[in-house]
Structure formats: C-alpha cells, structure tokens
Amino acid sequence: MTILIAPDKFKGSLDSFALCEAMALGVRDALPDANVVNLPLADGGDGFANVMAHYLHTQPVQAATEDAAGNPIIVQYQRNPTTKTAIIELAGASGLALLAVEKRNTLTTSTLGTGLLVKHALEAGAKTIILGIGGSATNDGGTGLLSALGYRFLDAANREVKPCGVNLGEIERIVAPEKSIEAVFTVACDVANPLTGPTGATYTYASQKGASPADLEVLEKGMGHFAAVLENHLGKPIANLPGTGAAGGTAAGLLLLPHVRLQNGTDIVLLNSGFHEHLSNANLVFTGEGGFDAQTLQGKVVYSVAQACKEKKIPCMAVCGKVDADDAIIKACGLIKVVSISEEGKDSYGNAGQLVREKVKDLLADNYK
C-alpha cells in the first residue's frame, strides 16, 4: 500500500516538513509495511520559498535590501545557479510582519526592498524568477519593486514620483527601462481580488496593514488613477482582472514586465513537487492545514489536494489544527474524513506533532484494519 502525505503547514506550530514527518510516523505505527511518500506543500504565502527550494534544489543567498518602511535589512532568498532560477518571497523584505504596529502605514510603505532582491538575483544571472507575493505591508501597486528594476513613474511635469501608495495619484506616465528585462517571472498569487473597487486591493486588505478610513479613500483614489495609467500603457484592461489586487496591487504592476504570469501558488508547488505523478501511484492520501473552514474551498492546499484525489478516485483524509466546517463543506472539499488535533485539556500547539501522529494512527486503525 502506498500512502502519499501532502500537507500544508500548521502556522505557528509545524511547518509542512515537520507535519509530513509526524503523519509518516502515524502511518508506520498503524501500517509498518506501507510505502510512505512525503511531499511537503505550501501556497504562495509563508513557507512558499522553503518548500519550493526543496523541489528546485536551490541554495540560500543573503542580500542587503530594505523593509517596507525603508529601514536597511539583510534578507535571504533562494537561487540555483545551474538552472538560473531564483525564488523570492515579497514578505521577506516588504512583509507586514517585519514592521512594528506603529510603523505600519500603507500611505508610505513600498515594495522597493523586494525589487532590490529581484535586481540582485537578475544581476547574478537568474533567468527565471518565482515570486511569492503574500503577506505584504504595502499598497503601492508594485511601483517600488518595479522602480528597483529600472521602471520610472513620472508626474505631469515629468518628475519622478516616489513609489508609495499616497503618490499613485500623481503618476501620469510609465517609462520602461532602456534594456528590456528578459527573465521569466512566475508570480504566486493566491487571491482573486481585482485591483480596484469594494473587493479590490485597498478596501479588502489595506486596513489590515494599518490604513485608517481616511487613508482608504486616498489610497483607492490613487489606485484607480494608477489603474488607468497602467491600462493606457499596456493597452488592455487591468483594474477588474482577477488577482491583480494581490499584495496591494503588486500583481497588477508586475504585468508591466515583458514575461510574466500570475499563477495560483498552490498550483505552482503541486507542479514542481511532482504531486500528480506521485498521486497516480498512491492508494491513500493524507493532507492537512492549521485551520480547516469554508475558506479552505477558495483554492487552499487541502482543497487542491482533495480535489485531485477525488478526480482520480483516491481516498483523501485530512488532519488539521482546528476544524470549523460542516459535512457539506467537507464533502465539497472532496475529503472522506477530516479530524482536528484540538482537544480540551491538551496543548495542541506544544504537542502538535505527537497529536498528529496519534490522529493518523487512529484514522488508519478505524478505516484500514
């Protein structure tokens, strides 16, 4: 019997590598002769680069850059000089978690630091850039990142506009760098929000990054103006394109690059992990995530894994940190069983690995005696 283990992380408790190991121990406790295949997974958010590095055989690289507030920092990204591939997380330099609460200001924060990492990778010879854009502290439409790559954003008097959210309304013209950027960019984009409007970058996410109600009005007005300039430059509609609102509109700005594709982060990981090939040889699949609820159906790792299993009629079970879902959600996801490690009187964070091991063992004992 071949059992494929393909989970996301338990955020704050177990990364997907540790979760795989805990599940594998549970399998061996119940079925010592089973063939176990571990495939740690991720979406385009936290952990994306580490998981991708595992499959693309990259090595960490240190580079000087700055955080979203402009403070100098040293950040790590991943690079494989043989395949000329670099993996960069926007959250590594321009992430919300890097800023103290009092420093979070979407009017002035910028993705420039991420752009400097991309520039570093390009100058080192990278021809493929895989960019995870979850967890940003910004609402600058990606102008900071692009300015680091040589794009210029000019006002009506042809003066350069400092790239940040509050200045988007001043941009009247976009000038591409003289030397075209030939690298291919794959952007891990896990949301479907458009650039503007009530479900766009500003009104959906900026308040979580420190924007006040008054800030939201300024930012949305500027983003709408920037969208029009962007559309005029590219000669095609952008503002309502699904996914362009990701990372404070960074996904939209990146469409200025000559060779770029927005793609679901989970799909990128599944492809590079060889998940579908491994799935063809599996008799059973275990997956999992920290919190299983209705949002899981919006393309998270567990949903993607379970749906692939359903298509091939391979049973799939999930062990999660917490479960807040009824039978209809579980059925829609495609799982035959989902259990939680959260139990009264037990430290589900401190003992997550052991609890996962026990749950997997119990599931197999109950269903595969």
Characterization of the model:
This protein has helices spanning 16-30, 48-56, 90-94, 112-123, 143-148, 201-205, 213-234, 246-253, 265-273, 275-279, 301-311, 327-333, 352-367, and strands at residues 2-5, 35-38, 59-66, 72-80, 85-89, 128-132, 152-154, 173-175, 184-188, 260-263, 284-287, 291-292, 316-320, 322-323, 337-340. It has 369 residues and is an alpha/beta fold. The chain is built from 13 helices and 15 strands. A 6-stranded mixed sheet has the order 3-4-5-6-9-10, sandwiched between helices. It is elongated, with a radius of gyration of 22 Å. The longest helix is centred in the middle third of the chain and has 22 residues, at 213-234. The model has no long low-confidence stretch (mean pLDDT 95). The protein has 2 domains: 2-41 and 274-367, Rossmann fold (3-Layer(aba) Sandwich); 48-263, Glycerate kinase, domain 2, CATH 3.90.1510.
**If you average the pLDDT, what whole number results?**
95
Strand-residue proportion: 15-25%
The tally of strands reads 15
Over all CA atoms, what is the radius of gyration? 22 Å
Q: What is the fold-level CATH name, i.e. the topology of the largest domain?
A: Glycerate kinase, domain 2
Instruction: Provide the structure class.
Output: alpha/beta
In total, how many domains does the architecture comprise?
A: 2
The CATH superfamily of the largest domain is Glycerate kinase, domain 2
Cα-to-Cα separation, first versus last residue: 13 Å
